[in-house]
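user: can you give me the structure for this one chain? tokens are fine.
assistant: on it. calling the predictor now.
[tool input]
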Amino acid sequence: MSLRHAGGCLCGAVRYRVTGEPSSSVICHCASCRRASGAPTVAWLTFNRQCFEITAGKPAVFQSSPGVVRQFCGTCGSALTYEIAKCPISIDVTTATLDEPGTFPPTAEVWLENHLHWQPTDRSLEQYVGSSSD
């Protein structure tokens, strides 16, 4: 039996479910994630795209850069997902929107080249100047 994890936006208008375990759990320091979230970092979980489904509502979609689509709640603005065209088999889900976000603690920090000097990092995690896939 596969594990199922539910999540959603702040107002509850959009709900989702993921099945199984993520292939990665990272904290992103990139400028694009900062601007999209209004936060100094964003924690992401990467799942197989087939393991993700929207169970209620319809998220708004924004193409934040060429080949990148972000989904968010059009009512409350909660950032929900990140998809990149060059990797259509995966989807990144914002860790903090899970009903139980502590289930998958981060194992790495990525895009440290964009790190804000006043934001602490966790040296016990794997550290990547850019993407963890570089």
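assistant: here you go. Residues 40 and 126 are 18 Å apart (CA to CA). The domain at 4-127 is CATH 2.170.150.70 (Metal Binding Protein, Guanine Nucleotide Exchange Factor; Chain A).
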